[in-house]
Design brief:
- The chain is mostly helical.
- Helices cover 75% and strands 0% of the residues.
- It is built from 5 helices and no strands.
Length: 146
């Protein structure tokens, strides 16, 4: 139990002190992991466990969507919103009769988005990109949902 409490405290600290790009990467990592696990559960017909992982993935994607700034993000925010909506629709539609390769397409989309954000983070870390008002005074995201 102590190890679990320590791990949760460590995760919370990582989230609370992360810059914006790192938070987005954490969200993609969590969702990709959720879908990989859901696919494994689905393959072994453990549908309750699969649905729990799918639900968590939906929650994370919803948080990403809520965090979009359409005023400053313009066309990129609109396109991300469309992608996130597509992902959510697909996840809602997954049931025991869907083919397992449905997950692969969703994981591929999320992996490509993650790669793009990884490049944003690299540029941010090198000082080539500023995330402006998303950052607080200490370079951390202003608002975080853990």
């Amino acid at each position: 139990m102590f190890a679990n409490t320590a791990q949760n405290a460590y995760r919370k600290t990582n989230v609370e002190t992360a810059d914006t790009a790192s938070l987005v990467l954490m969200c993609y990592d969590a969702t990709i992991r959720d879908l990989q696990q859901a696919q494994e559960y689905h393959a072994s017909r453990q549908m309750k466990a699969a649905y729990e992982r799918i639900r968590h993935g939906q929650d994370v994607i919803t948080e990403l969507m809520i965090g979009l700034d359409f005023d400053r993000g313009g066309e990129i925010a609109v396109n991300l919103s469309r992608i996130y909506n597509y992902l959510l629709r697909e996840l809602i539609g997954i049931n025991s009769n869907k083919p397992l390769d449905t997950y692969n397409g969703l994981i591929t989309i999320l992996s490509e988005l993650r790669e793009a954000w990884q490049e944003v983070k690299r540029k941010y870390d090198r000082g080539e990109l500023h995330l402006g008002d998303l950052e607080g005074d200490e370079g951390r995201a202003r608002s975080v949902t853990a």
